[in-house]
Design brief:
- The chain is an alpha/beta fold and 254 residues long.
- It has one domain: Metallo-beta-lactamase, Chain A (4-Layer Sandwich).
- The protein has eight helices and 16 strands.
- It has a seven-stranded mixed beta sheet. A seven-stranded mixed beta sheet has the order 9-10-11-12-13-14-15, covered by helices on one side.
- Strand 12, helix 5 and strand 13 form a beta-alpha-beta unit.
- The N and C termini lie close together (5 Å).
- It comes from Undibacterium arcticum.
- Its EC number is 3.1.4.17.
- One of its GO terms (molecular function) is 3',5'-cyclic-nucleotide phosphodiesterase activity.
Amino acid sequence: MKLKILGCSGGIGANLRTTAMLLDDDVLIDAGTGVGDLTLDEMVRIDHVFVTHSHLDHICSIPFLVDTVGHRRNTPLMVYAIGETLDALRTHLFNDCIWPDFTILPQPEAPYLQYREITRGETVSLAGRKITALAANHLVPAVGYCLDSGAASLVFTGDTGPNDALWEFVNGIVNLRYLIIETAFSNHDYAIAMASRHLCPSLFAEEIRKLRLPAEIFITHLKPGDMELTMSEVANAVDACQPRMLEHGQVFEF
């Protein structure tokens, strides 16, 4: 597997992009603003989108992606998510008010978009690649994902606050290599982190102590303006591991 980070910021501005990751050349993990940097040919090759949750910074490029390249594709774009997230997309986005309903356009028998409901703990296999939905603890129903090539696994927590169920699964991954974990706020915004079910460095430190396996750890979803402060607080909060900031354009091969 090859995973390219198209966006990993908790906001926009300058060169910052919100969460989107390109797996090989045909799978998106979330579809934030970073998708807009792809070429038309690259967008056409995307067949699958795995969505963590319904918040705008993780789904905003799905409507534009479908509208831009749907007519150039021979099959519908498949969007995978838990039922609550798909309900939100149907009700609040592809509703012919905010955006056309491309699950019935241009014709109901040949739409540009299809939904595939998945459940927490379910594994989807795509050409030998295993993608498993993991429990998350967020303000709306949400998941993270484990990407398993067979040789190694990468875990992306998605947006989450403290989450014991995640570690129960992660600690059973025998080939774990990478962990991408959100830490959206600095410690100054601890109350906001708790209320919105995100992590800050002090909460991150409590969570990472639950990890019993070695892994390379990367921090994502940092808020613009507080990135350096938050990463310094992360470094001061943990001793055993050396988390690094996830970067736009970074590539993982596993």
